[in-house]
Amino acid sequence: MHDEVMVLGATGRTGRAIAAELHARGVPVVLAARDRARLEEVRDALSAVASERLGPAARSPRMVVGGFSDLLAAIGRERPGVVVNTVGPFTRTALPVVRALPPGTHYLDLSNEYAAVDDVLRQDRRAAVAGQVLVPGAGFGVVAVESVVVRLCDGEPRPRRVRVDAIASVATEAGTLGSALAESIADVAAFGGAQVRDGRLVRTRRVVTDYRTITTPDGDRVGAGSGASGELLAAWLASDADDVVAASALAPANPAVRAVLPLATALFRIAPVRRFVVGRLSAIRFEDRPRPRASSWGHARVEWPDGRVREGWLRLGDASVFTTAAAVEVATRLLQGEGRPGAVTPGVVFGADLAVAAGGVVVDAPA
Prior knowledge:
This protein is of the alpha/beta class. It has 14 helices and 18 strands.
């Protein structure tokens, strides 16, 4: 049904949060995942909250239960208006989901791997013919930094150099890392580093480069290093700059760790080693912890050939909360028929105001 949003991975932390917010807004939701018992728990919880907010008119979410291939088949059968993909690793799930979409069904995901975002964007012509809008990277990193780049470059000539920094502050809840996130980490490590130089993507042996300490408008000093990410591709497309660097505060601060990362890249390309390490990573346990800083940030510095430089910041709270809000905002706009058919990043299709609508606050200079 083209008035519904199907959430793939609806029992996961982020999928559950996205489904809950959509349902609370009165958007018809289809919950899709492999575990029936957990899916029923999510459905019942969402129904209870929606009944309190919307009354008897609240519509209980429908469910689709099955493995990944079953969910792909269900997309063609159910024909939802929008599919929200929260199932990682996106380097393995994004393209199969996109190819399963019937004409007129739109798509978004939370990918931040360079390869995954690039895979979806390469479907632009196919999506345009099918009347679909495909939006990869509809989460914190891509939306936060891309929105700043779009705003700084609006009405300006083509810049020479762009650096973006995604500075996440996230509260963690007790549990294990999980296989999907472990696989995503392995994919990023196996891909290696990358930058844009002279208008071309350049792969680098070093996974993390251009590490520097950045002082946020709150006065926090945070280290960030560049690598291959969806943020890199989004900032490049949004600016068309000759040189682009995309950095993240998740990059390791220890120089010795950064120095041995190229070895990890080589090892992650060996299948048996990868399986072993992914298994160990997925079992890592986390405790409940508050976020380390009051704010998360998207930051961009843009330099033009005439020497002019502009910087911009986007202030957020918890980065995971922003991811939920951004995905819900994109899904709602797609369901309402906004956006041109094709494959495009969030800030390019919806503008810099998308991040503000999701809760971001523009800060042009340190306070």
